[in-house]
Structures are given as C-alpha cells and as structure tokens.
Amino acid sequence: MRSGLNLIQQALSIYNSDMLLTVSNQPFQELFNLPDRLVAPNARFDQTLRHLALNGEYGDVEDVDAFVQSKIDQALAFEPHYMERQRSNGRWISVEGSPLNQGGWVTVYTDITEIKQQEALLSSNSEKLTGQLLRRSEQLTQSNRELAATVSALEEAKRQLTESEARTRMTSEMTPAHIAHLGRDQIYTYSNRRLREVISNRPIDIVGLSAEQALGPEAYSKVKPYLEQAFEGDPSVFEFDMDKGTRRVRVAFTPDHGPEGTVVGAYVLSMDITQEAQARAILMQTRKRELAAQLASGLAHDFSNLLTIILGLQGQIERIPGLPLKALEAIATTKAAALRGGALLDRLSDVSGRRELVISTVQIDDLFEDVRALAAATLPAGITLELRNEGVTDPVLLDHGFLQDALINMILNARDAIETAGIITLSARERGGTWLEIQVSDTGQGFSEEALECALDPFFTTKASEGSGLGLTMIYDFAQLSGGRLRIENTAAGALVTVRLPLRFSGAKGAPGLVLLVEDVPQIRVAVRAMLRDIGHTVLEADTPGEALTLARLPGITHVLSDIMLGDATTGIEMIAQMQENGLKVPVTMMTGLPKTAPQRQAAEACFTVLSKPFSSAQLNAIFEAINP
Length: 629
What we know:
Elements: H1 2-7, E1 11-15, E2 21-24, H2 26-32, H3 45-54, H4 64-76, E3 81-86, E4 92-99, E5 105-111, H5 113-124, H6 131-174, E6 178-183, E7 188-191, H7 211-215, H8 217-231, E8 236-242, E9 247-257, E10 263-272, H9 274-283, H10 287-318, H11 325-351, E11 360-362, H12 364-376, E12 383-389, E13 396-398, H13 400-417, E14 422-431, E15 435-442, H14 449-454, H15 471-481, E16 485-490, E17 495-502, E18 514-518, H16 522-534, E19 538-542, H17 545-551, E20 557-563, H18 572-581, E21 588-592, H19 599-605, E22 609-612, H20 617-627
Parallel strand pairs: 12-14, 18-19, 18-20, 20-21, 21-22
Antiparallel strand pairs: 1-2, 1-5, 3-4, 4-5, 6-7, 6-10, 8-9, 9-10, 11-13, 14-15, 15-17, 16-17
Helix pairs in contact: 3-4, 10-11, 11-15, 12-13, 13-15, 17-18
C-alpha cells in the first residue's frame, strides 16, 4: 500500500485521533522537505507544524506557539475542509481534509502552481475579456475544485454508510428473532428473513407481501388487533400460542413515527419462547400450593404417627382367634379408613411440593396396560375404557408412578361423571415434536361452570364428603413440576382433561454387567436381586460388609449397589471406602430408606448416587442407564 501511495503525484498524510501520524507517502516528505523523524509512524502533528513554521512554510510567524495551537484546535474539530494557499517559495498548493469515522483525518496536498499561472495569464489578458467573464471563469475554476473535494467527501460518506448498513443487516439476520417493518398498508418493507423460525411453514422472503399473506390466517387473526393499535400510536408486547398450542410466540409492535409525528408504519420483533414458557411453568409458585404446604407441614407428622398406631393395633386385634364376623368387618373398615388417611397425606405432600420427580424410562403401551389393570376393578359393567396410543412407540423419560397416579385419578373422575353407561378414552400422541400430549375424555355430563373455574383449587370437590378435593390439584402440580401444562374443558361429548409434558426420548439401554449387591435384609435383597436380573445383570450377593469385601476382590465386577445402613458398626459408605482402598474402581449406587435430612444419607449423596427405598425396577434401570449409558 505504501509503495502504491508513493507513486501518486499528490502528497498524503493520515493522523489518528491522538494526532499521531499513521500513514504518509514520499511526496508528503518531499513537498515540505521534512526530516525522517517527522514522517515516521507516530510522529506528532504539533512537532511537524512547529518545524514548518520555523522553516518559513507559513511566512513570518510572530508567535509560533500560538500559531501551532490554533492549527491544532482546527484539526481537533475533524471537519471536512478545502483551502488554497501560497507557500513561502512562491508555489501554490491546495489542501483537502476529510475526517475518519474512527477519529483522526486524512489530508491530500496538491501542487496547483500551473493552474494559478494559467489564471494569472488569463488575468494579464483581461483587456480581451470582459471583467464579468473573467470573474466568472475564476469562480467556476474555484467551484470545480471545491466540488471535486465535496464529491470525494460524499463518496467516502457513501462507502461508510454502505458498510454500516451491511453490518446492521448482518446483525439483524443473526439475531434469533424475526425483525421486520410494516407500512400503514400492512405491506412488509423489511424483514431479516427469520419468520419461519417463529412461525413454521411460512415464506422466507416476505418483503412486498401483506401481513395476512406472510403470517397466515391463524397468526394474523391474533396479531391484527395489536397491529392496528400500533398504527394508532400505541406500542404493545403480547404472547399467543401457535400450531395447536405446541409453540408460544412473543411479539412486540413499535409505531414508526414520520417527520411530522404521524404514524407511517410499525416495527416488529417476534420470537419463539416455547422453552421459556416451559421454564416459567416449572418455576411458577401459586398461593394454592402455599396453603396446602402450610396445612401439610402442620398436620402430616402427627397424623402419620396416629395412623401408624391405628393400623398396628388393628393388626393385633385382627390376629385374635375366634373374632365374630362383625368385628372383622369393623376392623377392615377401620384399616381402610386409616389407609385412605395415608393416601390423603400423600396428596397433601404432593401439593406442598415436597414430592420430587423420579424420572425413569417409560413405554407408553406398558403404562396404559398397567393403568387398565388398576382401573378395571373400579369401573362398573356399563363403562368401557379405551386406550389409544397414537404413534408414541419409543420409550420416553417420565415419572412413571406420578403419571400413573394422575391417570388413575382422571379415570375415576370420569367414571363418577358418567351416570349409567359410557366410554372413557385414554390417548397419547406427539405434538410438534415438543410435547407428549395425554388426554382423558368421557361421555359424561362434563364440567360445571363452577368446576371449570375452581377445579384446580385445593380441597374443591363436587363429591361432597366422598372427595378430598386434591385430585386435579395433584395432577396440575405434576404437570407444573414436569414443565408441562394441564387444561380442562368440555366437548360436545363430555369432559376432556389434557396433560402436556415435555417430550424426551430415552437413550439406549445400558450394557449388562456383574453387580455386587450388599443388603442385610433378606427380603429386600431377594427383591432387588430379581430386579437386577430382570434388566439383564448378573448378581453377586452379600449380607455383611466383610463378605462384600471378600467378593469385591473377584474380577469382572462392573457396579456396586449397597444399602447405607448394614445393621452393624460398619456403614455402606465405610465399606465402599475400604473397597476403593483395595483397588476397586467401579460405579457405586447407594440405596436407603433414610429421610433426606439424615446425616448418613447426606454424606452418601456427597459422594455417590443415592436411590430412595422403595423403588421400582424402572427406577433402578434408569439409574444404571445414567451411570453406564
């Protein structure tokens, strides 16, 4: 670049915003006879001015310091300028300066001595020309030079504006949202081509299309009132559902005010906030749950102790030989009532938020069959239960027990809504690749207006003393904890309850291995051994830490599953520490029935995966899949 600049006839210099020389060419040094130090990079502008003033470049200068300071003040203004001046050696130069957008300026110096000589020649022959023509010629010559400088400045401004526009467009096209502009005629005048990422199956190039053509009938009907509001001068931000509720969209309209304050259009910012909506659902805490939490925390502990005593005493009485039939019936009724109280405590615990999700691999067909088996005994002969799995064939990740309880509850509610005979339908399907939608519908009388309004309130029930009023609240809580939604409504046939859960498919099943099982209670050890074998593992069993330490020396062990409390002085944590000291390096899972506040459990959770008792085969398998994918 420097070699190219040295070939041009004009002198050139570029100073930055700190007034230090950045670039100059050889004619610049030769034109002003500058020493090498003043044309080196970072040479100071004030030193160059002082050198030129002291060497007579500007004629006789009485106060050099004041002269230099005035020139510096002019340069700091960074304004475009053009001037012509005669040097002390008699030659004429033009000086054309233009500011740079990052600060500093570029200056071009042109020797115009020959042009001035031609003007002088014209002036000497002025007797042949009218005075008016001479003055006009000089004005035109001066104007042409100024116009050339102006054109250069405009070209530079145009180049900078083009670069800025390109950067702005690139930034808007990289923004994960749709940015657009609509005129008052609802025609798009600008779009960053990302509408399809917000509303599926819409065109990419929408400039020139109307809002209804670009958005489609469904979306346009939802944004039209807010768009008309923007044309009236009122900005707005709103949200709506798309694609049958599988997408959540947020839109912002900002009026575009013209020069006289009138609205000439609207700016649009829209984005897909489906994941944000799911996160909001998980974090939402309502006053209903707070009320249930207060009730549960105050009563659950003492109530559960009373129920335990009642069940224990009834069990002892039931074993007395020779009791009459009425006594046995009374005992059975008392035990049933106590068990129902225990179920109510579980419901209160669920609503209060103390229950946590236990995620496992769930096959929808198997889940539905389990639900059928549990619900069959409660359905009268006139009511039919239909199961419909509409394409969810791959295993998904869910809380099996929580969802099963929710489905049973919805089926029982549907049963109670059918007076004599009817159909209850349980169905599952995917929605938009984002949601797993499970619905329970019936041909009963549907929800009353009061139920549609209050069904999710804790303790609200239409079954008088027979209902706890926590069924739908528990289902709503399950949907919220899972990051999903619950909707209740009436159809032409009856009631419809829809649960939408985030759709997550299970990965591949972990490879079978050799598991060392350590459990001191024989009945539990037998049950866990059966679970491990059912999911494909080979099992070594030990009921004491000493036996387990001996077995741990055998080759091929891939996993250790041990209880935390082993019935003697050594805990499972201490036993595992000895195994690791002996060189065993395999994944470890601890199992326990201790509450989460127990110090032994907290110590185990700091080091290992902990599985709460009781647990199902699916939950155990999920733990092994997570550790050995």
